[in-house]
Task: inverse folding
């Protein structure tokens, strides 16, 4: 059990030692290790998304009394791979009236930003790629950059539907960023650190979801909105805006947006697990298994919400954020601060 | 201040939520609708002109293609209009079968309404539940005529074939399960906080406006006018059945939604009574082989279709083809209020408004 727990940490140390024995400087070895880590993240994310998309389709099928994919492989597990091949081999269409540079870069920016989120996540004990002291702040600030990519897509497409979707996404992201940060701040106040590993270690005795139930609920709502998932899927809103910001995209460019959304989904679910459900802490299994397990369970809730609820109206969405979520999270912050002050 | 401008955006004819080929030229100020113009005609097939080159019998199948979601209702309207023209009265049993098929069509149409409204406001799952249950009605239509969507089961003067044996248990079990189905819709949709927020107080159509624009059917009743042709001017044998007219209060989208759910219950009530009272006997009246109404005779017959007042105006010149046939299509006239109820609302309300007006473009464009 001990070996399994520290398997990846030991492996990393062995690689560094091996490189140094071969006569490489300590800095060089660290850089090569970082590159290996990033490559691993890219690989894990890709495989993970293939599973995720399949899972969402199966679960939406279950909710909607359908079978879901069932042709390729057992329970249709290879469906996503077949879809990916189809998307890769599709003709690359760039409409003639688009702003070509912005149109081309938007999906790349989006996927890079969503991959950057993974850098600070502690996948296990001591298994963050970069153990940043400002981890939570980094995650939130990078996460909000995704809006720029959506705005680029909407503006560059030179399409009114796309522009409407992009404008919606900007309005939504800005409004929901604030309650999201305030909810997380309550957790950070208890943990006394912005470092994600420290926050997880602070949940040794009790998960923060029990100490901060209000913050958890507001966080979860704001996170759903941040992810552009139903019932807050304004930017796409296929029944209203055909496909919102993605209207003009097809083939692999569209797939990149799609991949980035699922990448975000897993990252935010992992963040939820880290901030409220004790992250990689858990009995019996090694720590690097606990985080994915918790993240997947949280993701099931996201799926469930999306496939059950109707889409909220744009003005209700804004009113809900500014008139309900922000006051509630602010009050929660004040109460948390007072309690912490008197407990000291 | 930055200079701002309205954008004109074409909702349709190629759009996911326009129920066919509806084209709404919308002027938007951000998310607000400043103005709206409805363009029609994208699925025009000149059905009325075709009628002039078909005999009365040959024209029967074209009717289902008007309102393909409630297949038996337009067929019934046409057949009754021709029967009125010829002065034929139907055998008892045929009248009862007509009522059963018509009300089943109404339930199917309203179920599809609930499902398409659900998907238009983003609740994808609602569509699948409604389609699952509507499928059972489609199966019953298939038993009677071999056709599911556009079954031309009715004939002028009655029916060619009686209801098959397996139809009775199917319709009975469907009626028994109907309350549970409606419970499921209510739990999934009607009680939902987001759905209520989106439908309540949006797309308000006052009773005065509804009457002034000639709106009919569930849309009119949702505005609080208890007007149903089945009661106001009973055709066929509708005067024999006991049923209520559900009415709304405000005429907003929520009222239009709830009125249709309650109409499903009322239709089920009618079918139960019809199944109980249905006599044995003939199913077809004596109709001349070649239908030639008197010269210069004309008739207007209207029925309560699932969309509203569906009228057929037929003029005969003594030949075996109608001289002129006009369809008063409720979808077409109901769509007239779309700009009125959408102006000043949000873009997302427009989608809900189109869905709750429940137009069938095949009928609106003819």
Result:
């Amino acid at each position: 059990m001990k070996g399994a727990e520290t398997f990846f940490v030991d492996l990393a140390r062995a690689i560094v030692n091996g490189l140094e024995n071969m006569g490489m400087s300590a800095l060089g070895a660290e850089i090569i290790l970082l590159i290996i880590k990033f490559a691993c993240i890219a690989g894990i994310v890709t495989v993970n998304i293939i599973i995720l998309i399949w899972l969402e389709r199966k679960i939406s099928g279950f909710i909607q009394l359908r079978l879901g994919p069932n042709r390729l492989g057992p329970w249709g597990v290879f469906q996503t791979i077949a879809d990916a091949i189809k998307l890769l081999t599709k003709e690359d269409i760039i409409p003639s009236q688009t702003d070509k540079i912005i149109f081309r870069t938007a999906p790349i920016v989006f996927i890079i930003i969503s991959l950057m989120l993974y850098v600070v996540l502690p996948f296990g004990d001591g298994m963050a790629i970069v153990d940043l002291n400002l981890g939570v702040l980094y995650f939130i600030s990078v996460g909000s950059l995704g809006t720029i990519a959506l705005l680029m897509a909407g503006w560059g497409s030179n399409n009114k539907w796309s522009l409407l979707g992009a404008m919606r996404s900007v309005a939504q992201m800005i409004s929901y960023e604030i309650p999201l940060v305030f909810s997380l701040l309550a957790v950070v106040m208890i943990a006394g650190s912005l470092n994600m590993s420290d926050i997880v270690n602070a949940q040794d005795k009790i998960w923060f979801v029990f100490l901060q139930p209000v913050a958890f609920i507001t966080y979860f709502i704001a996170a759903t909105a941040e992810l552009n998932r139903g019932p807050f899927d304004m930017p796409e809103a296929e029944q209203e805006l055909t496909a919102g910001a993605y209207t003009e995209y097809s083939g692999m460019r569209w797939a990149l947006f799609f991949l980035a959304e699922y990448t975000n989904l897993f990252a935010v679910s992992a963040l939820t697990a880290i901030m409220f459900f004790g992250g990689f802490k858990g009995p019996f299994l090694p720590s690097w298994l606990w985080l994915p397990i918790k993240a997947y369970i949280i993701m099931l809730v996201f799926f469930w919400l999306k496939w059950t609820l109707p889409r909220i109206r744009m003005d209700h969405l804004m009113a809900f954020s500014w008139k309900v979520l922000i006051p509630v999270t602010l009050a929660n912050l004040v109460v948390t601060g007072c309690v912490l002050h008197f407990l000291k | 201040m930055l200079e701002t401008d309205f954008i004109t955006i074409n909702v349709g004819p190629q759009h996911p939520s326009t129920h066919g080929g509806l084209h709404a030229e919308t002027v938007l100020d951000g998310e607000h609708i400043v103005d709206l113009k409805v363009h029609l005609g994208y699925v025009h097939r000149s059905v009325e002109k075709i009628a002039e080159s078909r005999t009365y019998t040959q024209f029967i199948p074209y009717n289902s293609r008007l309102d393909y979601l409630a297949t038996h209702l337009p067929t019934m309207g046409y057949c009754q209009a021709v029967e009125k023209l010829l002065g034929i009265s139907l055998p008892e049993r045929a009248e009862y079968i007509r009522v059963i098929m018509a009300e089943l069509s109404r339930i199917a149409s309203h179920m599809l309404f609930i499902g398409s409204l659900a998907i238009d406001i983003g609740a994808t799952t609602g569509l699948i539940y409604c389609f699952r249950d509507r499928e059972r009605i489609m199966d019953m239509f298939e038993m009677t005529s071999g056709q599911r969507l556009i079954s031309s089961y009715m004939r002028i003067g009655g029916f060619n074939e009686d209801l098959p044996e397996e139809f009775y248990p199917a319709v009975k079990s469907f009626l028994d399960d109907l309350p549970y189905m409606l419970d499921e819709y209510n739990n999934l949709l009607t009680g939902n906080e987001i759905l209520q927020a989106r439908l309540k107080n949006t797309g308000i159509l006052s009773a005065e406006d509804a009457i002034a624009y000639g709106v009919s059917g569930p849309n009119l009743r949702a505005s609080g006018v208890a007007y149903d042709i089945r009661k106001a001017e009973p055709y066929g044998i509708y005067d024999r059945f006991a049923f209520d007219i559900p009415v709304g209060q405000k005429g907003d989208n929520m009222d239009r939604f709830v009125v249709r759910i309650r109409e499903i219950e009322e239709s089920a009530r009618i079918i139960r009574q019809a199944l109980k009272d249905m006599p044995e006997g003939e199913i077809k009246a004596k109709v001349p082989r070649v239908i030639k109404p008197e010269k210069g005779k004309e008739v207007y017959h209207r029925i309560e279709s699932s969309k509203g007042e569906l009228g057929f105006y037929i003029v005969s010149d003594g030949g075996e083809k109608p001289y002129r046939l006009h369809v008063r299509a409720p979808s077409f006239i109901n769509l007239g209020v779309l700009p009125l109820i959408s102006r000043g609302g949000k873009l997302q309300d427009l989608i809900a408004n189109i869905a709750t007006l429940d137009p069938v473009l095949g009928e609106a464009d003819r």
Notes: The CA atoms of residues 335 and 341 of chain A lie 10 Å apart. DSSP finds 14 helices and no strands in chain A. Chain A has one domain: 98-343. Residues 98-343 of chain A form one domain.
